[in-house]
Amino acid sequence: MSASRIKEKNYVESIIKAAPVDLNDPEGVLAERIDQLSEKRYALREAALKAINQCLSLRVCSNFISDRQETLAEALVKILSKGGDEEQQLAMQTISLACMNLTFNRHMLFSKMIPPLINIIRDESKKVEEKTRVSALDCMSVVQLMSSVFGESNEVEVVNEVAQIFQEIIKDRRTSPDILTAALNAWMITGTVNQGTIEHDGVYIGDMKRLVQLLGDSQPLCVRIAAAKFVGVLIENIRSDESESESDHKEDWNEVIDELNQLVADKGKYKSQADRKKQKEFLRMILAYIETEQEPISTMMIRNYQLQLDTLAHIMQLELFKTVLADGFMTHMEANTNMMYFFDYYISDVADLKPFMSKRERRLSWTDTNKINSKRRSSLRDERSEQIGYASM
């Protein structure tokens, strides 16, 4: 990056920091920042994208995004076509968050985003950074998931073209581990709603040997875990399809089981002990499902309501939403109707419940520095003093 660009970026960032995002008025912030996406200064566009992403993550703005999606789509297509790598990555994050916020009239945004994303994924030149291609694959998985579930983009040609791209990346042995992992995850997410894209298009019949290779210890850990998730969803799809016979695939599955057992036993290089424990438990769940058809079960609390997921497809989708929404995940689970549609629970299930406080929140709420509880303790002392007849000290 040139010195002039660094200077310009620092100048714009200083202006943005002086005017922080007001989450009490997210629609006002979004209206202002969407207009800034057409600015000539790239640093101002990047700052606008960051503010939009913050609003869409931490707040549910379905109606506003539905009304402004045409303006937003045009600006994002222009950025994906002509913007720099960092700007493109932010734009892809915006696309993912906008897709999750939209509750109706999604077709315009979905249809306009797919062509530029395909161009970035297919571009293997040095002009496009590997991280940008990975972001494009992650974004494509969200777009395909949301469009397929809500019936906004059912064109068979588009679904098949995207599946073909994923298949080409996985088959190519020159593909880098990061892109290979992103392609496996994206194709797996697409397969949670479009079963034919990973089950009937020659993927299972012709490519199981490739998937077994990706599970082998010669591959990086990230690729092996992504391949395990892919195989889990694939086998779940086959078992749910009445036209498929399990006996036709037992021999292939035995190879998969052997590789999964080695993966579970392998220590590997995890980010942390907590991450290692989480991944091991998840791999054991996939292994138990393939070996004994034990139903995969995962639960989470939404306030006092317990949401239970009993399919690998739903578990994978929930993990995707956690990754994309980040700090705003629980806000969307409580207020976003898209999440309720996905996991089959309703607003009344959550809204009628009393707010749930964790042990840490309860402990913090009783600290001396908490002004609210200081007033509460003072009022309690006054009540006690009136009951026993003397003033509190």
Spell out the blueprint of helices and strands:
Elements: H1 3-18, H2 26-36, H3 42-58, H4 62-82, H5 85-101, H6 107-122, H7 130-149, H8 156-171, H9 177-191, H10 196-199, H11 203-215, H12 221-240, H13 250-265, H14 273-292, E1 298-302, E2 305-309, H15 312-325, H16 329-335, H17 337-343, H18 347-351, H19 359-365, H20 371-388
Antiparallel strand pairs: 1-2
Helix pairs in contact: 1-3, 2-3, 2-4, 3-5, 4-5, 4-6, 5-7, 6-7, 7-9, 8-9, 9-12, 11-12, 11-13, 12-14, 13-14
Brief digest:
With 393 residues, the protein is mostly helical.
Could you explain how this protein is built, in words?
This protein has 20 helices and two strands. With 393 residues, the protein is mainly α. Strands 1-2 form a two-stranded antiparallel ribbon. The chain starts with a helix and ends in a 5-residue tail after the last helix. Mean pLDDT is 79; it is low at 199-206.
Task: List key phrases describing it.
393 residues, 20 helices, 71% helix, mainly alpha, two-stranded antiparallel ribbon
User: So what's the overall shape?
Assistant: globular
The tally of strands reads: 2
Average pLDDT over all residues: 79
Distance between the termini: 65 Å
Radius of gyration: 24 Å
What order do the helices and strands follow? Answer: HHHHHHHHHHHHHHEEHHHHHH
Helix content range: over 70%
Going across the major beta sheet, what is the strand order? Answer: 1-2
- Which consecutive residue ranges, at least 5 long each, have pLDDT under 50? 199-206
Tally the helices: what do you get?
Answer: 20
Major β-sheet, in short? 2 strands, antiparallel
Give me the secondary-structure category.
Answer: mainly alpha
- Assess the beta-strand content as a share of residues: under 5%
